[in-house]
Amino acid sequence: MFVKDVVVQNQVGLHARPATFFIQKANEFKSSIWVEKEERRVNAKSLLGILSLGIVGGTTIRIIADGPDEEAAVKGLVDLVDSGFAEGAR
């Protein structure tokens, strides 16, 4: 299991479009991946799960992965969050 905390940088947080980019990235990996906000944990590959967390800009989330590519999965998702979902702005 590999875990890392990250602060959501973009102003709107993980809503609609950024959440879609997030789950698309999560689905590139074989590992099981979860996102935690406070005490709630959801499947990172589920759009409804991510949206249900109500993640806004400035929120710290925890990304957890368990599986054959867990470190790459967490790193890829942390990098995406750190970028502010730059590719989604285009």
From TrEMBL:
Chain ranges of the HPr domain: 1-88
Gene3D superfamilies, A to Z: HPr-like
Keywords: Cytoplasm, Phosphotransferase system, Sugar transport, Transport
Subcellular location: Cytoplasm
GO biological process: phosphoenolpyruvate-dependent sugar phosphotransferase system
Signal peptide: none
InterPro entries xrefs: HPr, HPr-like, HPr-like_sf, PTS_HPr_His_P_site, PTS_HPr_Ser_P_site
Principal cellular location given in the protein's record: cytoplasm
Iron recorded as keyword: no
Function per UniProt: General (non sugar-specific) component of the phosphoenolpyruvate-dependent sugar phosphotransferase system (sugar PTS). This major carbohydrate active-transport system catalyzes the phosphorylation of incoming sugar substrates concomitantly with their translocation across the cell membrane. The phosphoryl group from phosphoenolpyruvate (PEP) is transferred to the phosphoryl carrier protein HPr by enzyme I. Phospho-HPr then transfers it to the PTS EIIA domain.
Protein name: Phosphocarrier protein HPr
Biological source species: Hominimerdicola aceti
